[in-house]
Design brief:
Layout (H helix, E strand, L loop, with lengths): L2 E5 L5 H14 L11 H8 L4 E7 L2 E10 L8 E8 L8 H15 L4 E8 L3 H9 L3 E11 L5 E10 L2
Parallel strand pairs: 4-5
Antiparallel strand pairs: 1-2, 2-3, 3-4, 5-7, 6-7
């Protein structure tokens, strides 16, 4: 599969919104319950340090956003959000996006990358980040409610980039 990673363009907004809302509907990894509008997605995307899309045959199949995890004195640590459309999961796209985001975070001058809320039941995500050298540094009990109303833990992952 020939996947291309490229900087987000305004023409990608509808595709990103579709994927974002698809993940919200699944209720397994994003905290939001309500769909995002074009204006809300645009506001988010245009206020990131970096946004990249994974494209296959010209179609956006996934994306990530990269930004400061903390303001001010903590802005040397990045945070990111990733999403892949359902039909392209389990095909290595997450690993491609993950590796790319690590490289971009380094290029942006970040010293580390931290994920604050990896849902414990999202085994694919847990396995992905551990395979890329992230360490689980924390756990918050009963922090996420899945669509089936099961309440599960979230994990905090961290990777030093220098």
């Amino acid at each position: 599969m020939n996947v291309i990673i490229e900087k987000f363009k305004e023409e990608d907004i509808n595709s990103i919104k579709y994927i974002w809302n698809e993940v919200i509907d699944e209720g397994e990894s994003f905290f939001w319950r309500e769909h995002f509008s074009n204006s809300k997605i645009s506001e988010i995307l245009f206020n990131q340090r970096a946004v990249y899309c994974a494209k296959y045959n010209g179609k956006v199949i996934g994306f990530y956003i990269l930004h400061d995890n903390f303001p001010g004195r903590g802005n040397h640590i990045a945070n990111a959000l990733y999403a892949i459309t359902k039909e392209f999961r389990r095909k290595g796209i997450g690993k491609i996006l993950g590796k790319h985001s690590i490289k971009v975070a380094q290029e942006c001058g970040y010293k580390a990358l931290q994920f604050n809320s990896i849902v414990s039941t999202n085994i694919a995500s847990v396995n992905l980040w551990e395979s890329l050298g992230f360490n689980r540094i924390g756990q918050v009990s009963s922090a996420f409610t899945r669509n089936n109303n099961e309440v599960v833990d979230i994990y905090i992952y961290f990777k030093t980039l220098y």
